[in-house]
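Look at one record.

>
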Amino acid sequence: MKKWIIIMILIVLLLFGSVIGFNFYKFAQMGKAMASKPAPVFPVTTLTVKGHDWSPTIEAIGFIEPNQGLDISTQVAGTVDKLSFESGEKVKKGTLLLSLNTDVERANLKSSLGKLPAAKANYERMRSLYGKGGVSKGNLDDAQAEYLSLQGQIDSLQATIDRMTIRAPFNGQVGLRNVFLGQYLKAGDNIVRLEDTSVMKIRFTIAQTDLSKVKVGQSINIFVDAYPQRPFTGKIAAIEPAVKQLSGVVEVQASIPNAEGLLRSGMYAKVQVLLPVIKDQIIIPQTAINFTLYGQTVYVVENGKNIKGQPATIAKQVVVNVGERNEDVAHVLSGLKIGDIVVTSGQIRLSNGSQVKAEEDNTLAKPATLPAL
């Protein structure tokens, strides 16, 4: 029995020994294979950093306003007697737009004007008689009061007639007409929108930290969704003297010439306040920058040694400080210098010290025209 147990133990030890020996042999062969395998080389596209002029801007948003604009309405109630404009028409200052029926007011005015000469003559006669002692001071005062009262009544009727005649207060373009001939209007009813669009204005806010960078007369560009590729140029016209306490921003107003009439009030616009150009700045594609929670990094290509200690072209990860971004490029404030070679694409597979090979690739190049959908 003991002899059989010893034989079984020897067989088990032999089996375990053979398995362990095979694994040691396998790992040894894998180590030899890995040692003889060449270091991985990752294809990338690169760009040599050069000095460029950079035009910094202050970005903001705002809504376009007309140079002058108002909703024309009537101050008194009445029936529309005459319409002298059409929707969308351009009008001059003082142009008659609408008049209400003034038959009653003109009849009362005519009656008062008819009484005026007699009242004036009576007043002058009383004044003459008073000078001669023929009438009392009370008679003179009554005659004067009657004359002045009638004159005031005439002025009041004339003012009422003038208020029932609506004229354009400035040069501009009317919008869609909201009234019709013969329509009864109440005081305050909207007649039409009138706007002077020869020059448009835009209000926007900037942070108080940027206040030292802006001044009256400074150039701006605005972009609207209706013409996304066309910048409209203007100049800062006024800066609010006070900073908003709760938000810490300053309101700025700019004027934009609108000779072509392309800009309309109410348009949403993106504003770029143009700052002085900075020479010899480092500008790289945004695709070269890795944005993470811990900062921004860029892979720089340089000569070094690969993971096997052999001379090779490797990618070194460096931390950069990114300033403004404009479309597909970014302004690098620190971390790079002119002459550095940066990886612009393919860096997703890289780690610090990876061996790379520069390849020609125009995948990221902008097409001359966008493909139609």
